[in-house]
Amino acid sequence: MQVPLYPVWEISTGRCLRSFDVEAAVKCVAWNPSSKLFLVAVVIENKVIFLNPETYLMDKLVVQQTNAVFREEPDQGDYIQPERVKTAVTWKKPTPDEWAKGYRIVLEHFRMVKQVWTLMHLKAGN
């Protein structure tokens, strides 16, 4: 079986920057518009996978900052996740193999995901 690839293209040159090995066909893509955090969200079946599209062309400091954000789980303090939320979505850290592929966090939902929005989409809709 062939593994689906999701390519990231540089619009100004039309060059493929990187391709990601993903589990199935990508249904939706959202790009983080911040220049301080490289992040792409892809929707695959019931998952939203956040990818760091790091390549040799990108700012190494921003790549490192992005990786640092996802390397360790944030301190939750006294927060207790409600049972309703636990059953709706599960946050999963990537395996070492997935990390090497660019995965930074995987959100697994209880049903199929159709789309994902960026903050830029939400601002434009107001």
From TrEMBL:
<protein>
    <submittedName>
        <fullName>Ribosome biogenesis protein BOP1</fullName>
    </submittedName>
</protein>
<dbReference type="GO" id="GO:0000463">
    <property type="term" value="P:maturation of LSU-rRNA from tricistronic rRNA transcript (SSU-rRNA, 5.8S rRNA, LSU-rRNA)"/>
</dbReference>
<dbReference type="GO" id="GO:0043021">
    <property type="term" value="F:ribonucleoprotein complex binding"/>
</dbReference>
<dbReference type="GO" id="GO:0030687">
    <property type="term" value="C:preribosome, large subunit precursor"/>
</dbReference>
<dbReference type="InterPro" id="IPR028598">
    <property type="entry name" value="BOP1/Erb1"/>
</dbReference>
<dbReference type="GO" id="GO:0070545">
    <property type="term" value="C:PeBoW complex"/>
</dbReference>
<dbReference type="InterPro" id="IPR015943">
    <property type="entry name" value="WD40/YVTN_repeat-like_dom_sf"/>
</dbReference>
